[in-house]
């Protein structure tokens, strides 16, 4: 699946998106974060404090305990600061 | 008319307001708000520019949904939202909201609501540029509190 990153997550990971293959059984965003944090020390650092992480599934805001399906577009980013 | 635009291009708030007002001939009140890129950060340090990151696709849908919510809550004869993305220099307009209604209170409240929700529910992120380098702007608790007034 493809995971997208915005704002400082993208800067710190030095990528806007990546293809990842979480193990079967990873069905929630929290589970996905647990998996992503194992990929590299950089991932672990970015996801260390998940109180500052927001997410969307298929471009709709989602809580971190929400479930996603294979093929969904998942994105992680900080709280928004537009306007 | 209800129009929302998410764009990189600069816009002229005066020209937008004139065209918007002309499009709502039956309105008794038109309220507009223009947000500008500040020349200073919150610590008073000078800023030269700001880059607005956004989530293409999601941004348009969210801004349209926020406009739809405003139109549902207030009796509006017109609504316009323009939000820029990309790199903007200090002093440039970054966001523009206009509302038209029969009476002023609905127009004021709807514009206020639109700005509060744009700040907290539209997927934009600000990267400030100053002499000290680049800094991502943190979300502010007071923006969340302002948005919560409308729940």
Automatic annotation (TrEMBL), chain A:
UniProt keyword Lyase present: no
Gene3D superfamilies: 3.10.20.30
Top-rank lineage group of the source organism: Bacteria
Gene Ontology molecular function: nucleotide binding
Alphabetized InterPro entries for the sequence: Beta-grasp_dom_sf (IPR012675), MOCS2A (IPR044672), Mopterin_synth/thiamin_S_b (IPR016155), ThiS/MoaD-like (IPR003749)
Pfam (any one): ThiS
GO cellular component, one term: molybdopterin adenylyltransferase complex
One GO BP annotation of this record: Mo-molybdopterin cofactor biosynthetic process
Keywords: Nucleotide-binding
Record-linked PANTHER family: MOLYBDOPTERIN SYNTHASE SULFUR CARRIER SUBUNIT
Family per similarity comment: Belongs to the MoaD family.
The protein's name: Molybdopterin synthase sulfur carrier subunit
Automatic annotation (TrEMBL), chain B:
Molecular-function GO term, any one: molybdopterin synthase activity
Enzyme class (EC, first level): transferase
InterPro entries (UniProt xref): MoaE_sf, Mopterin_biosynth_MoaE
Organism superkingdom: Bacteria
GO biological process annotation, one example: Mo-molybdopterin cofactor biosynthetic process
Pathway: Cofactor biosynthesis; molybdopterin biosynthesis
Enzyme Commission number: 2.8.1.12
Similarity comment text for this entry: Belongs to the MoaE family.
Quaternary structure (record): Heterotetramer of 2 MoaD subunits and 2 MoaE subunits. Also stable as homodimer. The enzyme changes between these two forms during catalysis.
PANTHER family to which the protein is assigned, alphabetical: MOLYBDOPTERIN SYNTHASE RELATED
Functional summary from the UniProt entry: Converts molybdopterin precursor Z into molybdopterin. This requires the incorporation of two sulfur atoms into precursor Z to generate a dithiolene group. The sulfur is provided by MoaD.
Protein name in the entry: Molybdopterin synthase catalytic subunit
The organism of origin for this protein: Elstera cyanobacteriorum
């Amino acid at each position: 699946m493809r995971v997208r990153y915005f704002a400082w997550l993208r800067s710190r990971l030095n990528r806007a998106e990546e293809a990842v293959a979480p193990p079967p059984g990873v069905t929630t965003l929290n589970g996905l974060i647990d998996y992503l944090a194992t990929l590299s020390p950089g991932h672990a650092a970015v996801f260390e404090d998940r109180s500052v992480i927001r997410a969307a599934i298929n471009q709709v805001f989602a809580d971190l305990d929400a479930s996603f399906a294979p093929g969904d577009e998942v994105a992680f980013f900080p709280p928004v600061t537009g306007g | 008319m209800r129009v929302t635009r998410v764009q990189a291009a600069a816009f002229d708030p005066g020209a937008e307001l004139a065209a918007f007002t002309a499009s709502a001939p039956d309105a008794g009140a038109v309220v507009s708000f223009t947000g500008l890129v500040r020349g200073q950060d919150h610590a008073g340090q000078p800023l030269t520019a700001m880059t607005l990151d956004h989530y293409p696709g999601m941004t348009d849908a969210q801004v349209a949904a926020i406009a739809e919510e405003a139109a549902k809550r207030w009796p509006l004869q017109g609504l316009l939202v323009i939000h820029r993305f990309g790199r903007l220099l200090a002093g440039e307009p970054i966001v523009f909201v206009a509302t038209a209604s029969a009476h002023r209170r609905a127009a004021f409240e709807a514009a206020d609501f639109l700005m509060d929700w744009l700040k907290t529910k539209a997927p934009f992120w600000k990267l400030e540029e100053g002499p000290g380098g680049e800094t991502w702007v943190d979300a502010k608790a007071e923006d969340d509190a302002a948005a919560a007034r409308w729940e």
